[in-house]
Structure formats: structure tokens, C-alpha cells
Design a protein that fits this description.
heterotrimer; A alpha/beta (about 290); B mainly alpha (about 290); C mainly alpha (about 220); A: about 290 residues; alpha/beta; D-Maltodextrin-Binding Protein, domain 2; 2 domains; five-stranded mixed sheet; three-stranded parallel sheet; about 35% helix; C: about 220 residues; mainly alpha; MetI-like fold; 9 helices; about 0% strand; globular; cell membrane (chain B); transport (chain B); ArtM/GltK/GlnP/TcyL/YhdX-like (chain B); transmembrane (chain B); MetI-like_sf (chain B)
């Protein structure tokens, strides 16, 4: 009897140790760390891991087991250009805070996740693109008289904690009261209920929320952006070849209409015409 | 004092009336409060059909809630096994006669009991990769965080359990010529583990609830999938949170009931915590982490 | 350590811990009062009160604190319109205190109830024999004796409460975990020192607290 129990405990402990050992070399560990960058990986393995957002309607939204949105379509265009079938893309959910670590550590090969190109990030990773120029804006109730961030003094604004939009409000508009959550989907019921006066982040993200069925007609995007957020595609810092290749693919996509098709299938559904992809603004890939 | 009824006399006619009156007053107040809350939620349109409709669709369950529940159970299950291993190792370590083992073991246990789980999961996810030069997945961040904390709690519980055994047990074992390791393995741990079984199961409830903190590293557990992601799709965050809360309560109630059943079954053999050095003792059992 | 030599970061660090201490303090009082009340309900002769106490404990003990705090914000404040302060952070603070108190009270209640069980039956029987009512028996005879044996569990609950206070960050209070997250986001090169400072501060506060309660429990223990 005693022996049996002891054996059970030992087995449990042994199992635990085995599992810990397995954890050490989980499947992500080796991926994408080849010296030849994403071009090499796409050629040799015919698959890619792309980091995307999971909670942004219109851009990157996980609807059950699928992902959909403009970022997803851009990801598919790039994969196609690299010779990888859409079925061989592994989508991986990222949040704002873990995008650089994911690229640096090789958890993902590419990040297409409302990822603003800036100098601070360029120190750690390489950016291709931009494929879209967004700007920080405000989402308000349809009958609101707010027209811009200058009127935010004494008003309550909702955003995501640790995000660049939240930091910008804190620094540039210190008189605004900032309510922070871990996701934008928590801000919307507050805007609906009148507990906050505005929700702030990039205009394109706000438009995605405003276009959702359940909020149709309730909210509007103010339309006076107060920052430039060029959305780039993040890759490893030393992957200049991959970055140049992605820029070529984007150029081709602008020319052959697949960029417009990607827009029309996602954010364009609400009737907004597709923006022009300005290929003169593409990055120099750190070169 | 085993039953609470020793606290009051068997109610006579007057006490019965008084108890009934109190019951009615309190009951009415309670019903009134519930109705008030209901009507307030109604005013806020929280009972509207479209908010609840997603829960009638199979997709909500098969693609959001059930995968989330599975991720929660998986993290809790693996976390529990690792916590048990961690707990046994560090309990034995802390009971060691060698200072160079017992002091570091004690320091590790004390440290991880004092650091909020939220900080730990966050650090494992963002900080550890810089140390080990390898990414740590959200799953392992949650599991490692849970293991360090719950393992430390269990280590203290085991230690109290081992020490609570009558001294005669180990004396008799030594008398028949067993070595220290044998005494620990064959005599002390099996007896302590049996008596600690209810505590282990109640710790599992704590662990299961704590997986919810995985949201900080976007681990797709029940709360993340069922509340945040579901609401991003359907904009029904309050109804979603209600449904998820009910699921948590059902699962944890079953586990709590199971712990109680085990406790009743093991009955008189329940661990008596030594009083001499309290603070490390029964206290660990009810630790209400997130 | 360059992160903390920036006065702005250092202030954020200090004020974040101040929030934690304030949350812990107010919630400890709330949970103690509520928990003892619930324990009294659970052992009372009135069935509805007993049921209420049991339901409270079962619901709050089995729900993740994150959800309890969520409901305080989205239920009490957003839906029921309970606004506790004009100030944004103070409002979140008080909602957090309500959440932490109601959640922790369930654990206090259980600790008190098992404390009551450690008081010998003869004590209550004697109290009843001299004609004390239920409330008097509990207040004058049983609870004061039970108090000694609940000190150790209370210590653990208090420590857990202090750590749990970080969860109020999920509704937007800039407490320790949120500030640590921010600092790490904007200082990726100093992840480890940042963690050690935050975790170390918790350890420096909570480990001595644990030993203090252990000492106190031992000192006041009823030697039977």
C-alpha cells in the first residue's frame, strides 16, 4: 500500500520533470533563426510564422481558429511573394509589448501587427514598409462635440496601458484623464455608457471598432489625426535582404492591385476607398 | 467545537418566531437587492438579445470558450504536477539537516511566496528570455509562474505535514535500521501526502483561478478567449464575463467539493499543525491568491 | 540601476507601492469586518443567513479575483452607476477596495469559522448554561478565544491580499505591476534590475510580515 502511494508520487514527479525537460526545447525555439533570414527560410522550409494582433476588428482579429483583417491580408501577400502558400503560414498572436522580443528571439519570422515604425524600435529590429500610414485619433459618440485632442482637458480618455497612444496623451495632454485597460474592447462599453468621453489610438483601429455591427451608428472617428503612425513589417535586425524583398513585394502588390483587393476585402467593407500605397516612402532597410 | 449548533439553544417557540421573522426580513431585502441590480442591468440594456445570442451559437463554444477552457485546464494541470514536484523537493530540502541545503531552500520558498504572481509571470515572459537566450512561450511563462508560487505554498504545507507526524514514526524507522532517505521516502512522505491530499486539491482551485493572470502575456486561457477576444468579436463584454464567471464557479465548486470529500474520507487522519512554530503552519492552507 | 536614477521613474515606482499599501490597508479592514460578519452568519441559527454566508464564500472563493475586480468596475460603476469619487484614480481605488474586500472576506470567513472550531465545546455550552444568547456567546466567549488561533491564517491572508492588490491594475490603477510593465516596455535593456527592485520590495515588506505574524501567533497561542 505504502509502496504504491510512493510510486504514484514518484511517477507524478517524474512526469513533471519530463514535461519540464520538453519545455526547454519547445517548437518555437529553432524557427526563423537561420542566418539566411526569411527569404532563406521561405525557400527551404516553405513556411512562415507571422505575428499578428488578435483583438483588432478590421486589422487583425481572431475569429475562433481563423484570423482576419487587413494585416492578415498583407501577411498573405508577403508570404505569397516569398513563395509560401497561405495554408503554410502559422499565425501567432502578439500584443503590443511583445513584438520586439518575439522578433529578436525568433518566435516569429515577421510581425504585421499595427506596428508603427520608429527610431527606438529600429535599434532592435528592421522594418519593411510602411504599407499604411495611420495617425492617432479619437473615437467619440456620434453626438459628441469633441473635435480634437486640444479639447480633452478635464475629459476622460480610454486607451491601452503601456501603449504609445496612451503615453502620448500622458505627455502632451496632461490635463486629460486617462483610463487604461489591457484591451480596447474594454474601452468601448465605457464610451457607450458615457463613463469616458473618448477612446484614443490609431484612426484605422478605431474605424475597425466603429464599423462593428453592435456599435453601428453609435460612434464616430473624429478625423483629426495628431500623429503619424507608419505601419511597418518587423523583421530581424540583420535581415536586410528579407526587408528589401518585402519592400519589392509591396511595390508589386501596389502595382497589380492585390493591395487594393486586400483593403477592399477588409477595412474597405465600410465603404472607405483604398489608400494609395506610396512606394517612394518605403524604408531603406537600415542600409 | 465540531458543530456550530452548540453556539445556541435548540429554538423554542419564541426563538422560532424570531428566526422566521429575521429570515423573512433578510430574504425580502436580498430579493429586493437582486431585483434592483437586475433592473439596473436592464436599463443599461445588458439583457438585450444580441448580447446573449452569441452564446446560443456553437461557434462561440467550439472556437472561443472550450479552447480557452482547455488552455486553462492544461496550464493548471501541468502547473499542478510541477508544483507538487517543486513542493516535495523544497519541503524535504528545507527539512534537511545540512544548513547549506536547508537555508537556500528556505530562502527560495520565502521569496516566491512573497512576490505577486502577476510580476512573476510577466518577468518570466519578458525577462527570462534575456537570461537564457531563448524565447519563453506564454504557456510556459504561466506554468513557471504558477509552479514557483504554488510550489512554494505546497512546500510549506508538506513541511508542516511531515513535521506533524508523531515522532515515533521516524524513531521506529531508524530503529529498524533505515537510512535517512529511506525514512523520508518510505515513512514520512507517504503519510504526510495522504493527510495533505485535501490541501493539495484546494491548492488546485487556487492554481486554476490564477491561470486567469495569463492575460498579461496574452496566454489564450478562458478569460482571455471567453471575455477579451469574444468581446472583440461581438462587443458583449459584460454578458461574456458573466458566463465565464459561472463556468469558473462550477469547475472550482466541483474541485472544492472533491477536496471536502477527500477530507471527510481521510477523516481523523487530518494533519494537526504543530503549534510550536506557527506562521509556517496551517496558515498556508487558505492562502487566497488571485 | 540607471532606470531608477530618473526621478520620474523613481516617483512612479514609489507611488505605485503607495497604492498597493493603501489598497491593502483599506481592504484589510473591510475584509476583516465583512469576514467576521459572514462567519457569524454561517454559524447563526437563522437558515437564510447561513445560506447567504455559504453562498458568498462559495461564489467569491471560486471566482478568479481578476473577474471580481472586473465586475466591480463594469458592474458597480459602469452599469449600476456607483461612482465613488470624482477623481479617476480614487474611483478606481475604491472600486478596487470593494473587490478586494468582498473577495478576501470569503477567506477571512473560513479562517474564523475554523478558528471557532478550535474553541472547546464546553466553552459554548457553559456560556449557554449561564443564559447567554447566541450573539453574546459568540461575542463574549467564543470569538475572543478563536481570535488567538486565527492569527496565523490572518497573516497569510494579509500577505496574499497585499500581493493580490496588484490585480487592481487591470482596471487602470497605476500600481506596481502596471508600472513595472511600463518601465520594462520602455527600458527593454534593464528588465532584470527592474524586476529585482519590484519583487525585492514586495519580499522586503512581506517576508518580515510573515515572520511577525508567526511570532505573534506563537506568542498568543493557547497552550492546550
Amino acid at each position: 500500500m505504502r509502496m504504491k502511494r510512493m510510486a504514484a508520487i514518484a511517477a507524478a514527479a517524474g512526469l513533471a520533470v519530463t514535461m519540464a525537460a520538453c519545455g526547454g526545447d519547445s517548437d518555437e525555439a529553432g524557427s526563423g533563426s537561420g542566418a539566411t533570414g526569411i527569404v532563406g527560410k521561405a525557400e527551404s522550409q516553405k513556411k512562415l510564422v507571422i505575428g499578428v494582433k488578435a483583438d483588432q476588428p478590421g486589422l487583425g482579429l481572431q475569429t475562433g481558429s481563423q484570423y482576419e483583417g487587413f494585416d492578415i491580408e498583407i501577411g498573405k501577400i508577403i508570404a505569397k511573394g516569398l513563395g509560401v502558400d497561405a495554408g503554410n503560414i502559422e499565425w501567432k498572436t502578439t500584443v503590443s509589448a511583445n513584438r520586439e522580443p518575439f522578433i529578436e528571439q525568433g518566435t516569429v519570422d515577421l510581425v504585421v501587427a499595427t506596428y508603427t515604425i520608429n527610431d527606438e524600435r529600429k535599434q532592435k529590429i528592421n522594418f519593411a514598409g510602411p504599407y499604411y500610414i495611420a495617425g492617432q485619433d479619437l473615437l467619440v459618440k456620434s453626438d459628441s462635440t469633441l473635435t480634437g485632442p486640444d479639447q480633452l482637458a478635464g475629459k476622460t480618455v480610454c486607451s491601452v496601458s503601456g501603449s504609445t497612444p496612451a503615453k502620448r496623451i500622458q505627455e502632451n495632454y496632461p490635463d486629460a484623464r486617462l483610463q487604461q485597460f489591457d484591451s480596447y474592447s474594454k474601452c468601448l462599453p465605457l464610451l457607450d455608457g458615457g463613463q469616458v468621453d473618448a477612446v484614443t489610438t490609431d484612426d484605422i483601429i478605431l474605424a475597425g471598432y466603429a464599423a462593428q455591427d453592435q456599435y453601428a451608428g453609435k460612434f464616430k472617428v473624429v478625423g483629426s489625426t495628431f500623429s503619424d503612425e507608419p505601419y511597418g513589417i518587423g523583421l530581424k535586425k540583420d535581415d536586410t535582404t528579407g526587408c528589401e524583398k518585402v519592400n519589392e513585394i509591396l511595390k508589386a502588390a501596389a502595382a497589380d492591385g492585390s493591395y487594393k483587393a486586400a483593403w477592399d476585402a477588409t477595412l474597405g467593407k465600410s465603404g472607405t476607398p483604398a489608400p494609395e500605397l506610396d512606394t517612394t516612402k518605403l524604408t531603406h532597410c537600415g542600409a | 467545537m465540531s458543530t456550530s449548533s452548540v453556539l445556541y439553544d435548540h429554538p423554542g417557540p419564541r426563538a422560532k418566531v424570531r428566526n422566521t421573522v429575521l429570515s423573512v426580513i433578510f430574504g425580502v431585502a436580498l430579493v429586493g437587492l437582486v431585483y434592483w441590480i437586475y433592473s439596473k442591468f436592464d436599463q443599461a440594456n445588458q439583457w438585450e438579445g444580441w448580447l446573449w445570442k452569441p452564446f446560443a451559437e456553437p461557434k462561440t463554444w467550439t472556437q472561443f470558450i472550450l479552447p480557452g477552457l482547455w488552455a486553462t485546464l492544461k496550464a493548471a494541470g501541468v502547473g499542478m504536477l510541477l508544483s507538487l514536484a517543486f513542493g516535495i523537493i523544497f519541503a524535504v530540502g528545507r527539512l534537511s539537516e545540512h544548513k547549506w541545503i536547508s537555508i537556500p531552500a528556505g530562502a527560495v520558498v520565502e521569496f516566491f511566496r512573497a512576490v505577486p504572481l502577476l510580476l512573476m509571470i510577466f518577468f518570466v515572459f519578458y525577462g527570462l528570455p534575456y537570461v537564457i537566450k531563448q524565447p519563453v512561450t506564454a504557456f510556459w511563462s504561466v506554468v513557471i509562474g504558477l509552479t514557483l508560487y504554488n510550489g512554494s505554498v505546497l512546500a510549506e504545507a508538506f513541511r508542516a505535514g511531515i513535521r506533524s507526524l508523531p515522532g515515533g514514526q521516524s524513531e521506529a524507522a531508524y530503529a529498524i535500521g533505515m537510512r535517512k532517505t529511506q525514512v523520508m521516502q518510505l515513512i514520512l512522505i507517504p503519510q504526510a501526502a495522504r493527510a495533505m491530499l485535501p490541501i493539495i486539491v484546494s491548492q488546485l482551485v487556487v492554481l486554476l483561478k490564477d491561470t486567469a493572470l495569463g492575460y498579461i502575456v496574452a496566454y489564450p486561457e478562458l478569460l482571455q478567449r471567453g471575455v477579451n477576444d469574444l468581446a472583440a468579436n461581438y462587443g458583449n463584454i459584460i454578458p461574456a464575463a458573466m458566463v465565464i464567471a459561472v463556468i469558473y464557479i462550477i469547475i472550482n465548486s466541483i474541485l472544492t467539493w472533491f477536496a471536502g470529500w477527500l477530507e471527510r474520507r481521510t477523516g481523523t487522519r487530518r494533519v494537526r499543525v504543530p503549534r510550536q512554530r506557527a506562521g509556517t503552519a496551517s496558515s498556508t492552507v487558505v492562502e487566497p491568491q488571485g | 540601476m540607471h532606470v531608477f536614477s530618473d526621478p520620474k521613474n523613481f516617483d512612479a515606482f514609489l507611488s505605485s507601492f503607495l497604492w498597493i499599501l493603501k489598497l491593502t490597508g483599506a481592504s484589510a479592514v473591510g475584509a476583516l469586518v465583512l469576514g467576521v460578519l459572514l462567519a457569524a452568519m454561517r454559524v447563526s441559527p437563522v437558515p437564510v443567513l447561513r445560506g447567504f454566508g455559504a453562498a458568498w464564500v462559495n461564489i467569491f472563493r471560486n471566482t478568479p479575483l481578476t473577474l471580481v475586480i472586473f465586475f466591480c468596475y463594469f458592474g458597480l460603476f459602469v452599469t449600476l452607476g456607483l461612482s465613488l469619487s470624482q477623481d479617476l484614480f480614487l474611483n478606481i481605488y475604491w472600486l478596487g477596495v470593494i473587490g478586494l474586500s468582498t473577495y478576501t472576506a470569503a477567506f477571512v470567513c473560513e479562517a474564523v469559522r475554523s478558528g471557532i472550531n478550535t474553541v472547546p465545546t464546553g466553552q459554548a455550552e457553559a456560556a449557554r448554561a449561564i443564559g447567554l444568547t447566541f450573539a453574546q456567546t459568540l461575542r463574549i466567549v467564543v470569538l475572543p478565544q478563536a481570535a488567538r488561533s486565527v492569527i496565523a491564517p490572518f497573516g497569510s491572508i494579509l500577505i496574499a491580499l497585499c500581493k493580490n492588490a496588484t490585480i487592481v491594475g487591470t482596471i487602470g490603477l497605476m500600481e506596481s505591476s502596471s508600472v513595472m510593465k511600463d518601465l520594462i516596455n520602455f527600458n527593454g535593456d534593464a528588465v532584470i534590475p527592474i524586476f529585482l527592485v519590484f519583487a525585492g520590495t514586495f519580499a522586503a515588506i512581506l517576508i518580515p510580515t510573515g515572520y511577525f505574524f508567526g511570532w505573534l501567533a506563537n506568542r498568543l497561542a493557547v497552550k492546550r
